[in-house]
Amino acid sequence: MRRLPIRIRVAAAFAATMALVLAGTGWFVYARLGADLSRALDQDLRLRAHDLASLYLSGRSPLPLSTEQGNRLVEPGESFAELIAGGVVVDATPTLGRQRLLSWAQIQSARRGPRFVDVPSVHGLDEPARMLATPIDLGGGRALLVVGATRENRAETLRSLRTELLIAGPIALLLATGLGYVLAGAGLRTVEAMRGRAAEISADRPGERLPVPPTRDELERLGATLNEMLARLEAAIERERGFVAEAGHELRTPLALLRAELDFALHHAVSEEELRAALREASAETDRLVQLAGDLLLIASSDRGKLPLREEPVSARELLKSVHNRFAWRAQEIGRPLELDSPAELTFTGDRLRLEQALGNLVENALRHGKGAVRVEARPVDGRVELHVRDEGTGLPPEFVPRAFQRFSRLDESRAAGGAGLGLAIVDAIAEAHGGSARADGADVWISVPAR
Q1: Which residues does residue 446 pair with via DSSP β-bridges, in sequence order?
Q2: Rg from Cα positions in the chain
Q3: Are 293 and 354 in contact (CB under 8 A)?
Q4: Torsion of the alpha carbons at 240, 243, 248 and 254, rounded to the nearest 10
């Protein structure tokens, strides 16, 4: 069944559903009509019994069934009646003769009150019939009036209905199935158009989208959702292309310098001191390459949402002390005070090494580009922990702040100024991995993470 086209499967499901609906409706109509005809027959027998009893009790004729009035109440070939007194038939329609219609048990039961009796056939009619036996008082004695009618009219009506249902039902089912097939095809034409356009979309031709039908239904929402997905994928591809291009540019410079230093050491160094100097420069460029490769890997991992964290309880004061000790010697060399401030009891959950890396990047930027004292501070704010690094310089210009945490963003776009423009991007990636964010306001840059 799964190998069949969707159009055929939808039509088959529609046909099966319609078959059940038609069958249920036909059965309901058939049963309801049968019940209504039975009630109508019973009501007719009651009225006929009442009218004949009135004739007997009026005393107009000893044998009403033989009179003109009695014959008008009994239709020849369809209905009949008889009067039983003392177990003997004293009056009856001509087709019955003098044959008693009820057994002794039925007579005894009917004497206690009106009783309906179904019989397979009646003498002279040879058709299934339904009878009503009603006790009446006649001339000081008690008699039993039996009126009946054949069930052939009811059976004929039901047969006619059954024939019409058996003819009209399949025709309606075929029409409904054909309509379902056409409607399914109309709906799937839009899907096929989307599929055809999707097969033509290529990463080499950005901006292409699927056709969206203005139907205001699930297909329109599906097309809009797929186009939104294509836009996200296109943006992701552009980011990846930009990332690769920028990474290539950043790697080219240290690699070129490393090669130049090694070539100098191999071919031009004439003394041990020159050789050592070239190797020191090569080692520095190698360290830069290692650092840059690590930064690029971290950014790539954060893009995939897979930046690994080893979360543990972190003391904010101990975290700041570790960062302070790491940069204390450098701050002392350039004459820049490095201060820290954190409540002793402030703790939260996070990856200590990653947070040290992020704070280290902020302190590195403050020492390289800022002025005056550098202050590292931790404080609780509305259920979060903010880790601030600020200096006394002018800080980031307001127009640069919106893109400050984007990768490869620099205040000085010249690559000769140094730095790959990944420091703040790494800070932002680490903050987001902790469920937080990175913010900047002039010379104050901070990380906000949940105080879990």
Answers
A1: 388, 439
A2: 50
A3: no
A4: -150
d(CA 438, CA 445): 8
Extract the tokens encoding 368.
């390289």
Encoded tokens for 209: 């989208």
Q: List the structure tokens of 14.
A: 């529609």
- Alpha helix segments (H runs only) across 201-271: 218-267
Instruction: Kindly tell me if the per-residue pLDDT of 417 is higher than 50.
Output: no
C-alpha span between 102 and 109 (Å, rounded): 10
Cβ atoms 308, 301 nearer than 8 A: yes
C-alpha distance from residue 388 to each of 360, 385, 445 (Å): 11, 10, 6
Q: Which residue has the tokens 């177990």?
A: 87
Query: pLDDT by residue (tens digit) across 232-265?
Result: 888 777 766 666 665 665 566 667 767 777 777 7
Domains of the chain by range and CATH?
A: 6-155 (3.30.450.20), 218-303 (1.10.287.130), 312-450 (3.30.565.10)
Q: What is the pTM of this model?
A: 0.47
Contact 450, 435 (CB under 8 A): yes
CB–CB of 208/196 below 8 Å?
no
